[in-house]
Amino acid sequence: xxxxxxxxxxxxxxxxxxxxxxxxxxxxxxxxxxxxxxxxxxxxxxxxxxxxxxxxxxxxxxxxxxxxxxxxxxxxxxxxxxxxxxxxxxxxxxxxxxxxxxxxxxxxxxxxxxxxxxxxxxxxxxxxxxxxxxxxxxxxxxxxxxxxxxxxxxxxxxxxxxxxxxxxxxxxxxxxxxxxxxxxxxxxxxxxxxxxxxxxxxxxxxxxxxxxxxxxxxxxxxxxxxxxxxxxxxxxxxxxxxxxxxxxxxxxxxxxxxxxxxxxxxxxxxxxxxxxxxxxxxxxxxxxxxxxxxxxxxxxxxxxxxxxxxxxxxxxxxxxxxxxxxxxxxxxxxxxxxxxxxxxxxxxxxxxxxxxxxxxxxxxxxxxxxxxxxxxxxxxxxxxxxxxxxxxxxxxxxxx
Amino acid sequence: xxxxxxxxxxxxxxxxxxxxxxxxxxxxxxxxxxxxxxxxxxxxxxxxxxxxxxxxxxxxxxxxxxxxxxxxxxxxxxxxxxxxxxxxxxxxxxxxxxxxxxxxxxxxxxxxxxxxxxxxxxxxxxxxxxxxxxxxxxxxxxxxxxxxxxxxxxxxxxxxxxxxxxxxxxxxxxxxxxxxxxxxxxxxxxxxxxxxxxxxxxxxxxxxxxxxxxxxxxxxxxxxxxxxxxxxxxxxxxxxxxxxxxxxxxxxxxxxxxxxxxxxxxxxxxxxxxxxxxxxxxxxxxxxxxxxxxxxxxxxxxxxxxxxxxxxxxxxxxxxxxxxxxxxxxxxxxxxxxxxxx
Lengths: 400, 342
Fold this sequence. Notes:
The complex is a heterodimer of chains A (400) and B (342). Chain A is mostly helical. Helix content of chain A is 73%, strand content 4%. Chain A has two domains: 102-170; 174-399, MetI-like fold (Orthogonal Bundle). The model of chain A is unreliable at 1-17 (pLDDT under 50). Chain B is mainly alpha-helical and 342 residues long. Helix content of chain B is 72%, strand content 1%. Chain B is built from 17 helices and two strands. Chain B has helices spanning 2-5, 16-43, 48-52, 68-76, 78-112, 119-137, 142-159, 170-178, 185-198, 205-229, 233-241, 246-257, 259-274, 278-283, 291-297, 306-332, 337-340, and strands spanning 299-300, 303-304. Chain B has a two-stranded antiparallel sheet. In chain B, helix 2 (16-43) runs antiparallel to helix 16, helix 6 (119-137) packs antiparallel against helix 7 (142-159) and helix 15 (291-297) runs antiparallel to helix 16 (306-332). Chain B is globular, with a radius of gyration of 26 Å. Mean pLDDT of chain B is 83; it is low at 1-9. Classes of the chains: A mainly alpha (400), B mainly alpha (342). Chains A and B meet through helix 1, helix 2, helix 3, helix 8 and helix 9 of A and helix 2, helix 5, helix 6, helix 9 and helix 10 of B.
C-alpha cells in the first residue's frame, strides 16, 4: 500500500536525521504511530466498558451477592443461579408453564424437527466421509455435525417453549418465550411496513419530502414516553378510542389486562417507534439503485414484476438482512416499553428477559440478575449466529 | 431528459390509479404516526379533570385548553424539570460528540491501515484480566491488581506474543467492535455500577458520558467505516507527497469531505443517547437524572400523571424535531447508502 511505504520512508528520514529538534522528532514519531493512536481510544473504551464488565458479570452470575455493612460480600456458588432459573424455583418464570399441547402444535413442532433433520441430511450428504478419509477431515466433519445437531436441538427447544407457552391448555409463556414473541412479531411487522413505505416513497410523487419527514418522527420519542403514550391510547375509558370500544361493547374489557392483548399493545408500540428505522435504511438502499439501470431494463421491456425481482430485490436483500439483524438484536433487549406500558403484567405475560433481570436487580439479587442477562446474551448470540450463518447465507444465495 | 423522451413510461412517476392507492396508504400511515403525537400534544393542555372525564378530542370545542400543567412544570417546579433537561443535554450531547470523534478516528484507521492483531496476544490479555480479578477477589486493592496484571501482560506480549504468527484482519476488528451492540445493557451494567462506585463516577456527568460513548461507538463505526472507504485516496496521497502528516490530512481533507456523514451519524447517536433509559436508570441519582427517568417517574402511586407525561415528552421531542428535517436531507442525498451496503 502507498500509505505503508509512505510511513516507511518517514522512518528512514527519521533515522538519518537524529539532530532534528525534539518537537519535530516527536511529531514524526506520532505520525508513524497514527494507526495505534487513532484506533486505541475505541479499543480501550470498549475493553473497559464492554469486555471487562462482561467478564466480571460472568463471575457475578456464578456468585451470590450479599450487601453487608459498609460494602458487599461475593461468594462463589457455581451454577446455582442458572440452576435456579432453568430447573429450580424461578424456572416457571423463565421457561413458563407448558400444559396439555393441542394436536396441531405437535404437528408444528414435528414439522420443525423434520425440517431440521432435512438440513442435517443435506449437510451430511454434501460432506460425505468415507472409511478411509483422513483423521482431520473426519474430526471436522464430526464437529460440523455436532454443532448442527446442537443448533437444531436449541431451536426445537425454543419453538417448543414458544408454542407450549402460548397455545397449550393453561400454558403460561415464560420470559424467554415472551421475549421471542416481541422479537418475532415486532421485527416482522416493522420490516414489512418499513419496506412498503420505502417502496411507495421512491416514486416521484408530490409531497415526497413531507411524508419522509413525518415518517421519521416516532423514532425521536423516548421509548419510555412511547410506553406511556400507548398506555394512554389503549385505555378503554379515557383513551381516544374509548367510544370505539364502547360501541363494540368492550368498555369493561381492558387490553392490558389480557395477556396476549398486552403483548400486542407492546408490539404495536415498538413497531410504531421503529418502523422509521427500517424505513430510512431501506429508503437509502432503494435510492442507491441506479435509475439508469431501471430505465434500461424498462426500455428493454421488463415488466414491473421483473424490475422488482431482478433489479430491486438483489439490491435490497443484503441491506434487509442487516436491518433485520440489527432490529432483532435491539428488540431482544426491550425493557422501556413493557416497563412503562404494562410493568411486565398481567402476571408475567409481558415480562421480557431484560425486565426480568432488572426486577431481580431491584431485589438486590445481583447474581440471579447477571445469570438472566447471560441467558439473554446466549440466546441473542445464538439467534444472531443462526441468522447470519444460515438464514442470511441462504437468502443471499437465492436472491442476490 | 429521459422524462421528456418517455413521459408515460417513467416508472418513477406512477399512473393515476397507482397514485391514488399510494396516497391512500401514505395518508393512512401519516394518520397512524400523527394521531398519537396529536393526542400527546393535546393532553398536555388538559387539566387532570379533563383527562379523567373521558376522551376529549379538540381543544376549544371539547374542552378549554389550559396552560396549567405547563405552568406547573416550567414555572412552579422549574428546577425539578430544568435540571434533568440540562442533564440530558450534557450527557447525550457530549457523549454523541465524543463517540463521533473517537469512533470516526477508529473507522478512518480501519479503512486506511492494515491491522494484524494476534489471537495469542488477545488470549494473554484475557488471562491477565482474569489474573487481576483473581487478585482483587483475594483481597488486593484493585488499583494494585490492575498495575500488576498490566505489567505482566506487557511483559508476555513483548516476549512470547511476538513468536506467534497467526493473526486476524481489519474486518475481524470491525466485527468485534460492532458486535458490542449485541450486549444487553443488563449484562454489563452491574460490573459498571461497581467500577463506577470504586472510581466515584456514580451519579456524575462524566460517568454517564463515558457509558454513552462506549455504548454508541459501535453505531459510529458501523456508519463511518464504509463512508470513509468511499472517499477517494488520491486526494490524501497528493497531500502526503506535499509532506503533510496523517493528522493534518485527517483534519484538513478527510473530515471536511465527510462532514455530511459525520453530521448524520452524530444526529442518530444523539437521538439514541437522548432517549436512553436503562443505563440512566442504574447509574444516575438525583443530580444527574435524565429526562426519560423523569418521564418514568410520573407513574406515581395514584396512577400515571398523563398531563405531566405529555408535557415532558413534548419537551423532549421538540429539540429533536429539527433533526428529522436534517436527517431527511441526508437520506435524500444518499448519504446513508454506504453504511447499509452490508
